[in-house]
């Protein structure tokens, strides 16, 4: 049996979903709560396999409750079940430690399937949430290659544009020749270029030097 704690401040929602889950041969709702504070106590008391967590509730919201549960019980598997798809709800909930994210518009059967999947170690996300995360990741990946260079690597790249050899760079920076070679290799990899000449061309092309 998959033991579930259901947290939602709307009684009718709890009644409807709980009735469906209880009717499943492999799911048992062991406790219910209508606020985040009570949810923490029940989670630590019952140690359920899955916690279904609402977000907007009295006294303490689901994000804070999720964060506190994970802090005290890192193995907890929490599925957010909410009506909200706002960025200020989705990302904080996932960052707090929620495993899956569902909408209340989902069918009870879909929530049951999410319970089973999350129990098996999978992450279940509403398509809209997946889309938001993809867009956010694309935004993170729009940085230019040279922005990934460390300060030391950037310093060495600029010395390379002056035509200095690895030994000359090592002497000027008071570091080992082997260390310079490692940095140069990292620079070529991060800039995705084949050799020092292309690295220098990249530096001038992107106005890293005058």
UniProtKB/TrEMBL annotation:
Keywords assigned: Cytoplasm, DNA-binding, Phosphoprotein, Transcription, Transcription regulation
Biological processes annotated in GO: phosphorelay signal transduction system; regulation of DNA-templated transcription
Domain of life assignment: Bacteria
Gene Ontology CC annotation, any one: cytoplasm
Coiled-coil regions listed: none
Positions bearing 4-aspartylphosphate: 54
Classification via Pfam families: GerE, Response_reg
Domain HTH luxR-type: 142-207
The protein, known as: DNA-binding response regulator
Organism from which the protein derives: Bacillus salacetis
Domain Response regulatory span(s) in chain numbering: 3-119
Subcellular compartments: Cytoplasm
GO molecular function, one term: DNA binding
Keyword Disulfide bond appears in the UniProt entry: no
Keyword Cytoplasm recorded: yes
Cited InterPro entries: CheY-like_superfamily (IPR011006), NreC/VraR/RcsB-like_REC (IPR058245), Sig_transdc_resp-reg_C-effctor (IPR016032), Sig_transdc_resp-reg_receiver (IPR001789), Tscrpt_reg_LuxR_C (IPR000792), WalR-like (IPR039420)
């Amino acid at each position: 049996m998959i033991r579930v704690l259901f947290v939602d401040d709307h009684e009718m929602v709890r009644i409807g979903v709980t009735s469906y889950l209880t009717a499943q041969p492999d799911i048992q709702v062991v406790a219910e709560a209508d606020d985040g504070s009570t949810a923490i106590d029940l989670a630590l008391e019952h140690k359920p396999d899955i916690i279904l967590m609402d977000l907007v509730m009295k006294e303490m919201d689901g994000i804070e409750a999720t964060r506190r549960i994970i802090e005290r019980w890192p193995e907890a598997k929490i599925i957010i079940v909410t009506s909200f798809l706002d960025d200020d709800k989705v990302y904080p909930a996932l960052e707090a430690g929620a495993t899956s994210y569902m909408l209340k518009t989902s069918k009870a059967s879909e929530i049951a399937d999410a319970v089973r999947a999350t129990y098996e170690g999978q992450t279940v996300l509403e398509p809209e949430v997946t889309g938001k995360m993809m867009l956010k990741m694309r935004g993170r990946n729009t940085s230019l290659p040279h922005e990934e260079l460390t300060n030391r690597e950037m310093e060495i790249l600029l010395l390379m544009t002056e035509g200095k050899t690895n030994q000359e760079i090592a002497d000027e920076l008071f570091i080992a020749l082997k260390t310079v070679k490692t940095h140069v290799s990292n620079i070529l990899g991060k800039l995705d270029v084949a050799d020092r000449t292309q690295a220098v061309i990249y530096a001038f092309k992107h106005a890293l030097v005058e």
